[in-house]
Write a structure and sequence with these properties.
The chain has one domain. The protein has 13 helices and eight strands. The chain starts with 10 loop residues before the first helix and ends in an 11-residue tail after the last helix. It is of the alpha+beta class and 374 residues long. It is 44% helix and 14% strand. The strands form two sheets. The protein has a five-stranded mixed β-sheet. α10 runs antiparallel to α11.
Length: 374
């Protein structure tokens, strides 16, 4: 019978307290700022939202002056120039903006080749290291894993954190545990950006959350040894890895304490953001335009139509929190429908029997919000 080593007990709580993303990734952040088309009387704008602008930021000062960052700045500026053209932003769907971003970053020049979609902008860490997980779970995980392996030896084998060889064998076992719903130290990524988008859109919510898509430039030969990247063995027991074009970032590799030998992975983070301040500015602009119309037509300020329009604009500002939720849902539905046009379906991510049944069952639940488990 296998035993848990003393050094592995509490390991995940240590990682939870010490892990810093900036030690492992060079990150550029792109924010897609959109607003509601606050439409006035007689307006026939095609789309109910408008892409207001793209914002660019960089968390790593080491790459601010590089040629690549300058190229990205130029690309973002070109997008913003196009968005500023008359009528152009009213016609551009967010889906096609994502396509433009993919084409830029996936090109042979930059070669971003792995992706991850998240329903909201939480830290890029695996399930076991997330804030909502209790410290007791992290502390007990090793014993839990060993217990499952002892009870179901035909399904799961236990491998410790004692060596690189053991960690390599262990990651396949963790992929099986994650497949069956256990929170582990593996973080799913995919080689297909549209599959990543499916995951980004998968979680329903009554609250406003900002869907986030990550793009990684991974050199598989280098980053397998000098980072957390791994391609887990595929089998009939974890068919989802094949369906999802999957790989992992394996945080167990931190156990080797080789942070001095890490080669950072370039990463682009794309966040979908309702621009509240931009929307308020749009409301103020419409108020000014209304005053100009009033002055030209010499209508009294007590005119009922003018008063009603003013009140409607004021209500837009008061109800902005509800608007953010409503418009996020609209955009997620629009993106999902567009992905279906390109033959990307959530249900195809679950070819295995148990998860397929669970997915179909959840789809028809009368109460509750469905979520793709990653």
């Amino acid at each position: 019978m296998n035993n848990v080593t003393d050094s592995s007990v509490g390991f995940y709580n240590k990682v939870y307290g010490s892990y810093r993303e900036e030690n492992y990734f060079q990150q550029i952040k792109i924010t897609i700022n959109y607003i509601k088309n606050s439409v006035g009387v007689g307006s026939d704008k095609e789309r109910i939202y408008r892409i207001n602008s793209l914002s660019l930021g960089c968390d790593d000062k080491d790459i601010i002056t590089t040629t690549e960052y300058k190229d990205i700045e130029d690309f973002i500026k070109k997008c913003n120039d196009n968005l500023g053209k008359k009528s152009y932003p009213y016609e551009w769907q967010i889906f096609y903006l994502y396509k433009e971003l993919f084409q830029f970053f996936i090109s042979d020049k930059y070669n971003y080749n792995f992706f991850r979609g998240q329903a909201h902008d939480y830290s890029l860490v695996p399930g076991i290291l997330r804030e909502a997980v209790q410290n007791s779970y992290r502390n007990d995980f090793e014993n839990l894993y060993l217990k499952i392996a002892n009870e179901f030896p035909d399904k799961i084998s236990y491998f410790s954190l004692s060596s690189r060889e053991e960690i390599d064998k262990r990651e396949y076992q963790l992929s099986l545990l994650q497949h069956f719903g256990l929170k582990t130290s593996l973080l799913d990524i995919t080689s297909n950006p549209y599959i990543a988008m499916l995951f980004m859109l998968s979680e329903g919510s009554a609250d406003y959350k900002e869907p986030t898509l990550f793009l990684f430039r991974i050199d598989e030969k280098i980053h397998k040894d000098k980072h957390l990247f791994t391609e887990v063995k595929k089998s009939k027991l974890n068919e989802r890895i094949i369906a999802q074009k999957g790989a992992f970032l394996n945080f167990d590799k931190i156990f080797e304490n080789r942070s001095y030998d890490i080669e950072k992975i370039p990463r682009v983070k794309i966040v979908l953001h309702f621009d509240s301040e931009g929307f308020k500015s749009q409301i103020e602009k419409e108020k000014r335009e209304l005053l100009e119309v009033q002055e030209k037509t010499e209508l009294p300020i007590t005119n009922s139509r003018i008063m009603a329009y003013y009140e409607a604009l004021d209500d837009e500002v008061k109800n902005i929190d509800k608007t953010k939720v409503d418009y996020l849902k609209y955009i997620k539905d629009e993106l999902s429908n567009k992905l279906r046009e390109y033959c990307y379906f959530e249900e195809d991510l679950f070819p295995d029997f148990e998860k397929r049944i669970q997915y179909l069952s959840d789809k028809y639940e009368a109460i509750g919000l469905k979520k793709i488990s990653q």
